[in-house]
Amino acid sequence: MNIKDLKASLLKEYSFQTELHAHTSPASSCSQVLPEEMAETYKKLGYDAVTIANHFVYEYQGLSKNEVIDRFFDNFERAEKRGKEIGIRVLLAAEIRFSENENDYLIYGVTRKMLEEIYDLLPYGIENFRKVYKMPDSVFLQAHPFREDMELVSPAILDGIEVFNMHPNHNSKVGIASVYAKEQNFSIITAGSDFHHPNRGHEGVSAIRTKHLPEDGFDIAKILRSGDYLLEVGRNNIIIP
Ligand SMILES: [Zn+2]
Ligand SMILES: [Zn+2]
Predict the structure, then answer these.
(1) What is the pTM assigned to this prediction?
(2) Domains in the chain: ranges and CATH
């Protein structure tokens, strides 16, 4: 089989396209994309699903625990509702930050109950978190580990890393991240647009491609663990992880 045919057959087999990393406003204070607009943007691009991975931070913008969690879920539910109306699936993830530093971690497979528990652990750092909090059905990744101000953590406490973070305002040093992922033998690597800002052309600049439409965030976790997926960076550039 020549490479063109091989690519065509891969694209056909892994036909479902999902954004793994997008932020809505106001749940992510850095985003200018309303939840409804998020669903509409990815529908227009032809994606099958978009994952809302809003920031989840202790005392975020001076809010109380309940306010942080309510705003987080209100944004997800608004995007999900709009998604159902126009025919695109909206999935839930969280990008959490502990009070110890600026590191971000992505969780695929998360519920309100889990985030209520996780919130109380944010002040105590990642080492403690990974020791005391078990998430057997979720996947826990360090987001863009080579971006400025990030600190590497012990690979033993990660399920993998987000190698291809395509945010245009940050240098996530994706080449170095890819080399590191190989050196550390991470079984899971991901790609995400980290979409926050309209009109800068960075919506849908990466995707995970799967054989079926992911049910929810836990299904994403399952697919990532299975290793049976492709990544797409830019348009039509396929990465076999
Ligand atoms: Zn952000
Ligand atoms: Zn992000």
Answers:
(1) 0.97
(2) 3-239 (3.20.20.140)
